[in-house]
Design a protein that fits this description.
The protein is α/β, with parallel strands linked by helices. The protein has three domains: 115 residues, NAD(P)-binding Rossmann-like Domain (Rossmann fold, 3-Layer(aba) Sandwich), CATH 3.40.50.720; 150 residues, NAD(P)-binding Rossmann-like Domain (Rossmann fold), CATH 3.40.50; 80 residues, Alpha-Beta Plaits (2-Layer Sandwich). The protein has twelve helices and 16 strands. The strands form three sheets. A seven-stranded parallel sheet has the order 8-7-6-9-10-11-12. The radius of gyration is 25 Å and the shape is elongated. Bound molecules: nicotinamide-adenine-dinucleotide and 3-phosphoglyceric acid. 3-phosphoglyceric acid (3PG) binds next to loops.
């Protein structure tokens, strides 16, 4: 039996199914793996029993992934599984900030007891006249799973679309409409934009990337949309731009002590991924990642270890070694196996940044002394006997 600790509400109805051979536990110290969403794990006392964490969602700035890698804990996310949900709410924010929809609805509610409301609505409607998205310039920062979908949707809406992503993946470059014009600098992207929408992860080079200088380049009365992370924008600069009218609206998914006091804001409750479909997609992807890792040692969509697959564990034994990406690890591993006279059927070694993963199948079970010797290799973070 493998034990799973669930942190956060994974789905609205609470349904999470792993199938036979799995149990849910309350005590994390009894768990093999964690399934979670946005809880901040920095400072969390992670028990040694935990071998893997799957984050249902994209952003992993709430998880100390480098530290966990060095403790032999593989962290997964679910790339793209909630991207459509975010795309739709971003488009919604573009419309809301352009058409006076909310203000017009507010007026109707406030005048609900007016028997002549139909006539009076005709008189007042000019106050809610807005502008169309078609033909307007939109800048999209980050052209990954969400940003590429937003950019393409804006093309279909007839907007003049510009994108900035120095690290765009080949896969997302292929997905991007040829009508999305890619620019090489953040400044060129911001210049003259009527709408600016942010779709980058929160990390050292993106924290505060939208500040006074970038906002000054936007078209007068531009709209800023932040459904990425609160850290990406300099909130004081946004506040000043709103007060001075340089920004007409700020739509954000992050209710912070500062954003809630700003004028002309649409603020949601970190609800970008809040659809039944996105929750189900994220849970399905995260659960299958965890199961394949726990049962077979295979890694897909990890944010701190390389992808690696040897299919189902069918040989007598399968061992996975999580270690630093340094020279002579394979040499040391095979030397120890040779001492045990172990016959390796298949071996795979993959690396990603500072971390590496070596997995092998053997014809017979290894002696426990052999496993202990593997664990004693310097720079070895964890050795798993999967089978
Ligand atoms: N509000 C929500 O509910 C919600 C939902 C999903 C994602 N998000 C946030 O949005 C972010 C993006 O999500 P995604 O699924 O598109 O992730 P993703 O990893 O698919 O895409 C991120 C893109 O940002 C690019 N990028 C990285 N650093 C950059 C930089 N300095 N300048 C420009 N581009 C840069 C990457 O190359 C990548 O293409 C997530 O990390 C998360 O923080 C929020
Ligand atoms: O990074 C993400 O995927 C989003 O911010 C969604 O977070 P949530 O799963 O906590 O809603």
């Amino acid at each position: 039996m493998r034990n799973i600790k669930i942190i956060d509400d994974i789905t609205k109805d609470g349904q999470v199914t792993f199938g036979d051979g799995y149990a849910f536990v309350d005590d994390t110290a009894e768990a093999d793996a964690i399934l979670m969403r946005s809880t901040d794990l920095h400072g969390y006392d992670l028990p040694a029993s935990i071998r893997a964490i799957a984050r249902c969602g994209a952003g992993v700035n709430n998880i100390p992934i480098d530290d966990y890698a060095k403790r032999g804990v593989v962290v997964f996310n679910s790339p793209g599984a909630n991207a459509n949900a975010v795309k739709e709410i971003v488009l919604c924010m573009m419309v809301l900030s352009s058409r006076g929809v909310v203000q017009s609805m507010d007026w109707v509610r406030q005048n609900a007891d007016d028997p002549d409301i139909l006539t009076h609505a005709e008189h007042v409607k000019k106050a809610f006249v807005g502008r169309e998205l078609k033909g307007k310039r939109v800048g999209v920062i980050g052209l990954g799973n969400v940003g590429s979908k937003v950019a393409n949707a804006c093309v279909y809406l007839g907007m003049d679309v510009y994108g900035y992503d120095p690290f765009i993946s080949v896969e997302h470059a292929w997905e991007l409409s040829r009508d999305v014009q890619r620019v090489g600098t953040l400044e060129d992207l911001c210049r003259g934009c009527d709408y600016l929408t942010l779709h980058v992860p929160s990390k050292a080079d993106t924290v505060g990337m939208i500040g006074t200088d970038q906002l000054a380049l936007l078209a007068p009365g531009a709209v800023l949309i932040n459904f990425a992370r609160e850290t990406i924008v300099d909130e004081d600069a946004v506040d000043a731009a709103l007060h001075e009218g340089r920004l007409s609206w700020f739509a954000t998914d992050f209710a912070t002590p500062k954003t809630v006091l700003m004028p002309n804001t649409f603020i949601t409750t970190h609800s970008g991924a809040g659809t039944e479909e996105a929750e189900a997609n994220c849970a399905d992807m995260a659960i299958s990642e965890l199961k394949d890792y726990l049962e077979n040692g295979n890694i897909a969509h990890s944010v701190n270890y390389p992808s690696c697959s040897m299919g189902k564990a069918r040989a007598a034994s399968r061992i996975a070694c999580l270690h630093a990406n340094v020279p002579n690890m394979i040499g040391q591993i095979t030397a120890i196996l040779a001492k045990d006279n172990a016959n390796v059927q298949r071996m795979v070694n993959e690396s990603a940044g500072e971390n590496a993963y070596t997995m092998f199948d053997t014809d017979e079970h290894l002696e426990s002394s052999t496993i202990d010797a593997l664990k004693r290799i310097s720079s070895m973070y964890r050795v798993r006997v999967i089978k």
